[in-house]
């Protein structure tokens, strides 16, 4: 026995033991060559079956020059035939699965939890299959240490994608009988494959590709800013990984779909970013580029004890896509069943990806979140599902006012669909649920599930990632919504997301900047203003502002809500009035036209600064920079009348 460098087996630390599932490959490939025999069978549909490999054995057949034996599966090569006879043992297809394997697994379950020690793993060498170019014989990579009954998932394009270019249209997945310590495994996907095995279904061929952004926000706690030429030691640091592409990939993986992420990395935080994805069961495609001369998309935030900070921001690698997609990228896209895109990578990349995916028969889902962009008819002809929220839908239509009812949302969606008839529209409506307008005109409504809201940051990413995951699993539209919910009525993907978001409401997980600002607001309140964080979400504040004296809002009490997004202070707070107010710079939805909440925001500003600016805006309305155009016109044409209306609204509503 050889002591494993990672210690004895512990089922809670990255191992998962289920029935083994293996896709098969054409038997012609395991013959002498890739000549006429392959061409003869190239038009036949490949059958896939679930084939259990029930044991592994130590062997010294493959000498390595090392002092420990290598472990390999007993059955090294699995082939595919067109034979559907259920009695053909290892070569059966759908109708005849290995019934005895389930019995074996049940009997072996206790043995699988033993503390049997295994030789060290050679992480630099593992690969599910190896192709010998001369005779196209696919062999198992013999020197992976294995453990009885264990499974490990690979995208079989990694790491030897170029070796398989002449195989043709074969399944893209291998679930390999092997053993690796603490390797992230998509548990939800594994459970789905087990369910299909027990129901005698084909393996689920659902592959989702997320092509998008990934960011690293680096927080450094420093006593002060360093002087020129000075080296200053930080007293603390924190790195948070985000980006819409990464968020949605993680959500998709947690929804039970084998998900691959394609993006651009800098060589600085690539390990941290990839660990973040892999720990959620997301595969990182080998065609992702790690740029040696470009940093990752990130923000470096210097936090000082006073609560002040200085920030340096760069889009970095997210903007460093090649001008043309490489052949490996195109191969990945063409092998997808669903491709999910966002607006945080260059638009030309989205166009090329969507075109390649559409030509290959994949479903293309486009999330409008991120950079504000005009609708591109050339791009939209390749998109199947466009996913805006209500604000983004309003922006697409250049609507001057927000939607106040479901009927208005449906009418707006139908008018947009009239311009692009091939589109289905998935509209997220926050607490009002979601709405799907199919390209055939059918309307599907989904109410929001009851839950305690911790933080809405990333909720849209989570929802769209889970939606794309269910599309990849070939679920119906109705089932796509319903299957978000598990036995206890809570969506499994959202339950995972909630665990992540809960950290935001815990003071120990809040950035020091937010903690200090909150403490100061409570200890030294701004005259005429109170701001109190909610107990269950410390990023969400209930704000009350007293109407300033000598203004039309005098004697009024105005309620507002203020929310600090995950990237605060890199991004401004989200603030709106809850109390109705007649003001040229505040619209019917309570949104505020204030430059420091938009392009004039600086990380040096604080919550206190924002609240004081809003208070000043009540004292001095500015009709020359309006948000409520009708109020501004009234103000300009008849200021005394506008002031009387403002005072009347204050009396009635505040």
From TrEMBL:
<feature type="active site" description="Glycyl thioester intermediate">
    <location>
        <position position="593"/>
    </location>
</feature>
<dbReference type="Pfam" id="PF00179">
    <property type="entry name" value="UQ_con"/>
</dbReference>
<dbReference type="InterPro" id="IPR016135">
    <property type="entry name" value="UBQ-conjugating_enzyme/RWD"/>
</dbReference>
<keyword id="KW-0630">Potassium</keyword>
<dbReference type="InterPro" id="IPR000608">
    <property type="entry name" value="UBC"/>
</dbReference>
<keyword id="KW-0119">Carbohydrate metabolism</keyword>
<dbReference type="InterPro" id="IPR029056">
    <property type="entry name" value="Ribokinase-like"/>
</dbReference>
<comment type="similarity">
    <text>Belongs to the carbohydrate kinase PfkB family.</text>
</comment>
<keyword id="KW-0833">Ubl conjugation pathway</keyword>
<keyword id="KW-0479">Metal-binding</keyword>
<keyword id="KW-0808">Transferase</keyword>
<dbReference type="GO" id="GO:0004747">
    <property type="term" value="F:ribokinase activity"/>
</dbReference>
<dbReference type="GO" id="GO:0046872">
    <property type="term" value="F:metal ion binding"/>
</dbReference>
<dbReference type="GO" id="GO:0005524">
    <property type="term" value="F:ATP binding"/>
</dbReference>
<dbReference type="GO" id="GO:0061631">
    <property type="term" value="F:ubiquitin conjugating enzyme activity"/>
</dbReference>
<keyword id="KW-0460">Magnesium</keyword>
<feature type="domain" description="UBC core">
    <location>
        <begin position="509"/>
        <end position="654"/>
    </location>
</feature>
<dbReference type="InterPro" id="IPR011877">
    <property type="entry name" value="Ribokinase"/>
</dbReference>
<dbReference type="Pfam" id="PF00294">
    <property type="entry name" value="PfkB"/>
</dbReference>
<keyword id="KW-0067">ATP-binding</keyword>
<keyword id="KW-0547">Nucleotide-binding</keyword>
<dbReference type="InterPro" id="IPR027443">
    <property type="entry name" value="IPNS-like_sf"/>
</dbReference>
<dbReference type="InterPro" id="IPR023313">
    <property type="entry name" value="UBQ-conjugating_AS"/>
</dbReference>
<keyword id="KW-0418">Kinase</keyword>
<dbReference type="InterPro" id="IPR011611">
    <property type="entry name" value="PfkB_dom"/>
</dbReference>
<dbReference type="InterPro" id="IPR002139">
    <property type="entry name" value="Ribo/fructo_kinase"/>
</dbReference>
<dbReference type="GO" id="GO:0006014">
    <property type="term" value="P:D-ribose metabolic process"/>
</dbReference>
<dbReference type="InterPro" id="IPR002173">
    <property type="entry name" value="Carboh/pur_kinase_PfkB_CS"/>
</dbReference>
<protein>
    <recommendedName>
        <fullName>Ribokinase</fullName>
        <ecNumber>2.3.2.23</ecNumber>
        <ecNumber>2.7.1.15</ecNumber>
    </recommendedName>
</protein>
